[in-house]
Amino acid sequence: MKKLSKKKQIQLSIISGLLIVIILIVAIFINLKKSEKPAETSYQTVTLEQTDPLLFKGVVQAEKIEEVYYDQTLGKISNIAIKDGQEVKEKTVLLTYQNETVEDQASEQEQSIDKLNLAVSNAQQNLDNAYQKQSDLTNKREEARLEYNRQDSNSEKGAAKQQELEAKIEQYDQSLDAQKEAISQAQQSLDAATLDLTDANETIEKTKKKVTTNVAATSTGIAYVNLKGKTDPSVPLVTIVSPNTVIEGTVSEYDYTRVKKGKKVTLRAMSESKEINGTISEVNQLPQATTAQTTGTQTTMANYTFLVKPDESLQYGYSVEITLPIDELRIPNKAVIKEKDQTFVYLYQKGKVKKQAVKVEEVNGVTILKEGLKQKDQLISNPDSKLKDGQEVAVN
């Protein structure tokens, strides 16, 4: 093989070097073009699921507890009419009081009745006498008038007699007018005495009713008697516990709006595995802690009590877990797009997105779906301004 000349070797080296340089330049240019190409945005999805139920703690208690305390104003207890543990009904007599002080008052009041009866009798007699005197005056005037008419007015003697009788009749008229006033006063005195007697009799009847007082039950249940209540006014003498039970639960201010009367719940006693259904029967509007107080970095949150009526009775005092289903779908706040008066989300289906109009409600910073989607729908949780309706997207 013929050996290349030195000149040829130099030329080949130069050409090879140029080719290498060109290849490097092309490679760098391609890489630069690739780097200038915008990176494809990666989106994330979220699946709409039913919100987890709320859990509360509760304690079983009687639906109604009636407590009867010793009332010293009624007197001394003369009889406890029921036994400890006895079943009682509404209006069953529980206690009987005897008030000796009131009994003495009644005796004193009865003594005053005799005086009042005498006053009425005297007033009646005075009135009768006044009427009798009026009758006598009327008869005498009539006799004078008849005698006047029998006189001969043409004779001097008759005329004089008539003049005498006229004066007498006039005197009778004046006496009758005065007697009318006397009758009126006597009637008023009788009315006043009668009213005093009636009032006194009514007062005595009321007083007598206070001598003996029965205290009756206002509810139905089992009565428990604690004799310590006879000496300690802070202890109920009789406690009536209704046979029906309720569960008292506690909810914080954060979940208060979700606990509503009539909502169905599930109950499970901590000591048992059995679950029973129940219904929220009452929600207290007043918090246990009326105001939140901050001490350092700790804040006391207001708590509210509510009652649940179970479908089956539970043992008094049992600790119970209350499960309240939350029938709602929540949407991540960042997934919601607001345009003018409308709200949208991007629904992810088969590699593409659909701009879907929805109706939502914000409660305590949480976006709750009202209309436009269903459970198991997939949404883009991080949409941006580049995302368009019908666009194909890659998701993580």
Automatic annotation (TrEMBL):
Sequence ranges assigned to domain YknX-like beta-barrel in this UniProt record: 246-322
Segments forming domain YknX-like C-terminal permuted SH3-like: 329-395
TM spans (from-to): 12-32
Signal peptide (from-to): none
InterPro entries the record matches: Beta-barrel_YknX, YknX-like_C
Pfam families: Beta-barrel_YknX, YknX_C
Annotated GO CC locations: efflux pump complex
One Gene Ontology MF term: efflux transmembrane transporter activity
UniProt entry keywords in alphabetical sequence: Coiled coil, Membrane, Transmembrane, Transmembrane helix
Coiled-coil ranges per UniProt: 99-210
Protein name: Efflux transporter, RND family, MFP subunit
Organism field: Enterococcus phoeniculicola ATCC BAA-412
